[in-house]
Design brief:
four-stranded antiparallel beta sheet, 1 helix, mainly beta, single chain, 26 strands, 4 domains, about 325 residues
Length: about 325
């Protein structure tokens, strides 16, 4: 297309929503302009020469810092993640969905981008290796005479059922996904739910389920969960029986607040992993992972007793401390 210059010698560049412009008298803004107002049109070729930080044929999207350093994905704002604090998460269900994304509807949802780093990498451009997290062993609680509390997460499985003879949880299997502080994601082996129709054997069968959940979590690779305690019960309801599991993170590697566990309940059979039959769960508030007890322990990079070498991801502990996260005292002064 040519620009109307009298002799039709100048090319027109692609138009896109302007990143910044002046509203008209009606308040309309972000109008269509050449190169999205973030580039200069080359009239000989009809191509935009974008300013630093912008790219695309009409400079319609942002670039990612350092191209994410080869350790992450450049992702649009609508798909970027929440932060790591509980307040950053929505109140929605954590069943078979990524709990770290949120709906975004502003005008730049498909224009602004940022880095989603690979596991063990962080910072705005994913250029830094992450170091292990651990509790600060010298942190003093308000009342040291009372034993410290561990984080307890509650998972309740509530079946989609109109009556107790309908679809329930018996003889089904599911899995749990855990995300570490280094953004590593691990999913357990299939966890089978025993047939609990015999009320006399219910106590024994819920014990088997509790042990299966504990072994599945502690069996995740790299000793990412070194120890948990699991307590469970069948909850009788008029419509259907549900299962409630309380999972306490007591291991040294998981002291302090952890990411919520995610229930994997969708059927996953031939050629799928983990191989689970799936559980048809009702979309109720019971099908979420909630903190029922907050931890008295903290979780800091290198246990707040060392410095992280961001090139290697290894903690350099201060004098008197050792361990992967500097959480072991070697000397008292």
């Amino acid at each position: 297309m040519s620009l109307d210059t009298g002799d039709c010698s100048d090319r027109i560049c692609p138009f896109e929503f302007a990143w910044v412009d002046t509203p008209d008298k009606l308040g309309n803004h972000h109008k269509y302009v050449e190169c999205a107002a973030k580039g200069i049109c080359d009239r000989t070729t009809g191509q935009c020469a974008c300013f630093p930080g912008y790219e695309g044929k009409a400079c319609q999207r942002t670039t990612c810092p350092n191209d994410c350093s080869g350790h992450g994905q450049c992702t649009y704002l609508q798909n970027l993640a929440y932060g790591a604090t509980p307040a950053d998460y929505s109140s929605g269900s954590y069943v078979d969905q990524d709990p770290h994304t949120f709906p975004y509807y502003n005008w730049d949802l498909g224009k602004t981008r940022g880095c989603v780093c690979d596991p063990e990498y962080g910072d705005v451009d994913c250029s830094k290796r992450m170091c292990p997290y651990g509790t600060d062993v010298m942190d003093i609680r308000d009342d040291t005479e009372v034993a410290g509390k561990y984080q307890v997460q509650s998972v309740t499985l509530y079946p989609y059922s109109d009556n107790k003879q309908g679809n329930d949880l018996r003889d089904k299997s599911f899995a749990l996904t855990f995300k570490s502080k280094l953004n590593e994601t691990f999913t357990t082996i299939p966890i089978s739910i025993p047939n609990a129709s015999d009320t006399i054997a219910t106590a024994g069968k819920i014990k088997d389920l509790v042990l299966d959940v504990q072994w599945a979590l502690e069996g995740l690779p790299n000793n990412v969960i070194d120890k948990v305690e699991v307590h469970g019960e069948y909850v009788t309801d008029i419509s259907a029986d549900s299962i409630k599991l309380n999972i306490t993170f007591v291991g040294e590697n998981v002291q302090g607040p952890q990411h919520p566990l995610v229930v994997r309940a969708f059927q996953c059979l031939d050629g799928c992993t983990p191989y689970i039959t799936g559980v048809d769960l009702a979309m109720k508030t019971q099908n979420v992972t909630n903190d029922v007890q907050y931890s008295d322990y903290n979780s800091y990079e290198c246990g707040r007793r060392g410095k992280c070498d961001y090139t290697t991801g290894i903690c350099t502990c201060f004098a008197g401390y050792t361990g992967l996260s500097c959480s072991t005292i070697t000397a008292l002064v």
